[in-house]
């Protein structure tokens, strides 16, 4: 009877990957492109990234200058609120710690507003972008970030839903209060922890 019972006694569906937060699926080879605004074409000679606001000194880096900072790598997972995740990705860039250390946030600083060259914004507590948890990245899986995925450089805050990872990032505005960004004003959760399924306001 083994031929008949095998289908019922087997393991059934593959075990769920423990790296997937609740309600997420593994997009595997697919990397969906999501942006609210048209994809911009940014010109490297005029590109810049700045840390501004409540800092001891505002700092702005050109493309060559930011690329010359100590390199940092993230290897791990990303999770989009629309339920796809990608597991085991590698991103190369610079740690946000390095960028903030250069500008030195004032004691009153509590949050940052990440801003894009397109005007997209997203807010983050300072604690979510310090301590090795956030990067500005220009390579994904060993290749330059494509324009559609935020190239030349995007923010990467992989422990929060991916809308916090602003594409075409132009800087961080350091604040002494929380200021909702684009999606946070449009119904998304203020913080967006995928392990707590903080998708929408009220979650
Ligand atoms: N500038 C900008 N960055 C953005 C967005 C956007 O609309 N504009 N969307 C966010 C959302 S909702 C997601 S899921 C990811 C998508 O990144 P991807 O297109 O590289 O997958 O970018 C985030 N960063
Ligand atoms: Mo998203």
TrEMBL record:
<protein>
    <submittedName>
        <fullName>Sulfite oxidase-like oxidoreductase</fullName>
    </submittedName>
</protein>
<feature type="region of interest" description="Disordered">
    <location>
        <begin position="1"/>
        <end position="29"/>
    </location>
</feature>
<feature type="domain" description="Oxidoreductase molybdopterin-binding">
    <location>
        <begin position="38"/>
        <end position="183"/>
    </location>
</feature>
<dbReference type="Pfam" id="PF00174">
    <property type="entry name" value="Oxidored_molyb"/>
</dbReference>
<dbReference type="InterPro" id="IPR036374">
    <property type="entry name" value="OxRdtase_Mopterin-bd_sf"/>
</dbReference>
<feature type="compositionally biased region" description="Low complexity">
    <location>
        <begin position="1"/>
        <end position="12"/>
    </location>
</feature>
<dbReference type="InterPro" id="IPR000572">
    <property type="entry name" value="OxRdtase_Mopterin-bd_dom"/>
</dbReference>
């Amino acid at each position: 009877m083994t031929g008949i019972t095998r289908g019922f006694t087997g393991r059934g569906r593959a075990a769920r990957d423990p790296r997937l937060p609740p309600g997420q699926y593994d997009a595997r080879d697919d990397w969906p492109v999501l942006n609210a605004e048209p994809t911009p074409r940014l010109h490297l000679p005029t590109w810049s990234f700045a840390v501004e606001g409540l800092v001891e000194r505002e700092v702005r880096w050109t493309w060559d200058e930011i690329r010359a900072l100590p390199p940092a790598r993230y290897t791990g997972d990303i999770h989009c609120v629309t339920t796809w995740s990608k597991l085991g990705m590698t991103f190369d860039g610079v740690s946000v710690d390095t960028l903030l250390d250069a500008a030195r946030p004032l004691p009153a600083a509590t949050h940052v507003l990440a801003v894009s060259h397109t005007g997209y914004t997203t807010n983050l507590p300072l604690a979510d972008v310090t301590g090795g948890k956030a990067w500005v990245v220009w390579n994904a899986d060993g290749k330059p970030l494509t324009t559609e995925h935020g190239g030349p450089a995007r923010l990467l805050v992989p422990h929060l839903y991916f809308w916090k990872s602003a594409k075409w990032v132009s800087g961080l505005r350091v604040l002494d209060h929380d200021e909702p960004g684009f999606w946070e004003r449009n119904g998304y959760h203020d913080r967006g922890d995928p392990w707590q399924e903080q998708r929408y306001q009220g979650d």
